[in-house]
Amino acid sequence: MSEIRVRFAPSPTGYVHVGSLRTALYNYLFARHHKGRLILRIEDTDQSRFVEGAVENLLEALRWAGIDYDEGPGKESAVGPYFQSQRLNIYKEHIHALIKSGHAYPCFCSAERLEKMREEQTAQNLPVMYDGACRTIPADEAAARMKNEDHVIRIKIPQSGETIVQDIIRGTVHFQNNLLDDQVLIKTDGFPTYHFANVVDDHLMRISHVIRGEEWLPSTPKHMLIYQAFGWEAPQFAHLPLLLNADRSKLSKRQGDVAVEDYRKKGILPEALVNFSAMLGWNRGDDQEIFSVQELIDSFTLERVNKAGAVFDLDKLEWMNGQYIRSISEEAYLKAGLQWMQSFNLDTGDPDKNKAILKAVRPALNKFSDLPQKAALFFNEKLKYETDALEWIRKTESREIFSSMLQEIQSFDRLTLDEFSQMMKTVQKETGHKGKKLWMAVRAAMTGMTGGPELPVVLSILGKEKVVQFLNQALQQ
Asked: Which of 192, 251, 362, 388 is most buried, with most CB under 10 Å away?
């Protein structure tokens, strides 16, 4: 196999969609699996959609996710960086070659005429596509008019036959040429469209495989015809399945978060989002769900990518993130956790207490944005009781336990883990209550819940004063 060269070619139009992240990831995994190269190309020829800061945001998202590329913005290259807006002379040179060979032609139709044409086609239930009005203008006349009239350049699609696309994921796909539009290749402002620039660039950058979203499949026959017009060999194509909402509609911002930035703000770890994204349409053929990046690189093949749309299951992502939160080193967890505590104004000012709180909530934490909820019991001034907890608090034996604890706790200056254990042994002996009857009552009184972090840890973090306060509150119920 010749050198594998793939590209990720986003438009700088704002936030980084999770679908774009998956496309970048699959290109990255495929390149690394085959010891190939990944090219980053910024497709910024549509100046009307350009968003200031979008490129920087994209580069930061890739850095955060650990997706490194070999050529492109920020990389040393003999021909880079790759911004299409800086390559206009290249496209100009190549479009002249297509016009000269008769595979492209100038179109002088006004926006008003095109709009009227589309309205008439729609009214007659015809395919909405260019009617070829300028296809037959003699070359000399067209060349003369191009000097003074606004125009675009269109590809001249064959009006019969079919174009066949061999897709690694979807197999053989047939397209009837008479249903393909004479696509605009160069716009009136002189900038190329996606369709033209990406074919020229993919050829010049020696791209071996084009791995992109399913939404580009209908455009692929047009791209194939451009390759044929130049006499170039086309790359291999692989069109990835759509990302879907739970109701199997196309994933969109209308139904929830779709940007990488949104998940960063929720406290999703990059390792988790990468692992989760890899599984959106690909599987290794077994039941394993948690993969290191190296395992993904070793296992990834395009042949294991599914055709069917992949459901973006947020619950699954949060579960997976929880697995990573509990598997990273304690040092890394505490460093990240403290940053999140500070962002939520939960820093107690006591480093040891901060660490204790973070360790206590870690088993139940699925994303760092849940810290205020999971750690709330350590910051409450007055408890709100869940129904089940209130039932335990009001039991006669529970009230005996609380009274005994209030008496015993007075003999301690502070409440450490050892002192708590000693106190509870005395309470158990004095009241005769043990097991669930003892511990569920104390948990209900200290947290207002019947579940949560380990109880000795909770009480040691709360401290003597807060424990006394909560015991008195429980006795008042």
From this structure: 192
* Cα angle 374-280-286, degrees, rounded to a multiple of 5: 95
180, 221 contact by CB (below 8 A) = yes
- Evaluate whether the domain defined by 5-84+243-311 bears CATH number 3.40.50.720: no
| Strand 171-176 with 184-186, pairing | unpaired
CB neighbours of residue 262 within 10 Å: 15
Separation CA 288–CA 5 (nearest Å): 29
What CATH number has the domain spanning 87-240?
3.40.50.620
**In the chain, domain spans:** 5-84+243-311, 87-240, 329-375, 387-475
Reference 7, options 35, 39, 36; nearest CA is 39
Q: Are 145 and 108 in contact (CB under 8 A)?
A: yes
Q: Give me 203's structure tokens.
A: 């050829």
pLDDT per residue as tens digits for the range 293-317:
999 999 999 999 999 999 999 999 9
Residue 386: strand, helix, or coil: coil
Residue 156's contacts (CB-CB under 8 Å, 6 or more residues apart) are 102, 103, 104, 105, 135, 182
Q: Which CATH number is associated with domain 387-475?
A: 1.10.10.350
The dihedrals phi and psi of 353, each to the nearest 5 degrees, come to -70, -40
Q: Give the residue numbers marked as catalytic.
A: 253
User: Rounded to the nearest 5°, which phi and psi values hold at 464?
Assistant: -60, -50
Using an 8 Å Cβ cutoff, are 371 and 298 in contact? no
Instruction: For residue range 65-75, list pLDDT tens digits in order.
Output: 999 999 988 87
